[in-house]
Amino acid sequence: MPSVPEEVRDAVYGNYICHMFQGGSWADRSPLHEAAFQGRLLSLKTLIAQGFNVNIVTIDRVSALHEACLGGHVACAKVLLEHGAHVNAATIDGITPLFNACCSGSAACVNMLLEYGARPQLENHFTSPIHESIKRGHRECMEILLDNNVDMDQEHPQHGTPLYVACVHQRTDCVKKLLELGASVDLGKRLDTPLHAAARKSSVEIINLLTDYGANLKCRNSEYKCALDLAAPNSSVERALLLREGPPRLVQLCRLCIRKCLGRSCLYVVNKLHLPERLEDFLLFR
Q1: Whole-prediction pTM value?
Q2: How confident is residue 205, by pLDDT bands cut at 50, 70 and 90?
C-alpha cells in the first residue's frame, strides 16, 4: 500500500479535530457521542442507564471514548471505561483515545487510559501518542508516556524520532527533557538529524542544547548537507554552529562518556544516587 503523504494525513487529522472542537455533528453520531464530547457527565450516565452501548461507533469508527478524550473530559472518559468502553479502539485512520488525549493535552486522561490498559507504543504508520504530545508541546503527556516505557528513540516513518519532532516544532522544553533522559542526539528522520531540523528552523537555543549533548555537526542528510549548509549566511545559527565546529572541550567529553557508561536507565535515577550536588549538576547539565 502506498504511503499517505504527510501533508495529506495532517490535513485529515486537522479537519477531524477542527470539526470535533467546533461541535460539528455527523448524521451517525449518537447522543452518547454528543454528551461525551461536550463533557455532560450527568447526561452521559443517564444515556448509559437507558441502555446505550458505550462502544457504539460512527461510520469512521469514532467512539464516545474518543470524543471524551479529545475534549479532555476525564470524568466522562472514566464512566465510559467503567462501563466497558474499548480503551484501544481505533478509528479508520488508526486514531486511538490515547492519541486524542495527547492531542488535547489532558494528562489526567492519559494517566487513566494507561491504567485501563491503553497501549502507548507506536503501532501503526499513522498515529503515535508521544509524537502528537511533543508536536503540540504537551510535555507532561510526553513524560507520562516515557514513564510507561515508550521508546524515546522510536522513529515514526513520516515524523522521525520524538527528538526530531521536538526540533521541527521548536518545543525547547521537550528537547531538553528528552536529552536529559538520554535520547539519541543524532537519530532523526532517516539521514536527517535533529541538528538539521534545528538549523532549518533557525533555533539557536536548540542547536546549543543538541551540541552540548554531543550532536555530530558533520552528519550529512540525503542531500549530502550538514547542518551548517542549511544555516542562512551570516545568521545567528551559522555563528552558533561555527563556534561548535572545533574539538569538544575535555569537560564535555568526560560528561558524555560518564553518561554513556551509566546508560539511559541510570539517568532516570541520578538524582537518587546521593551524589555530591556539583557532580549531579554536572551529569544532568544543570
Answers
A1: 0.81
A2: very high
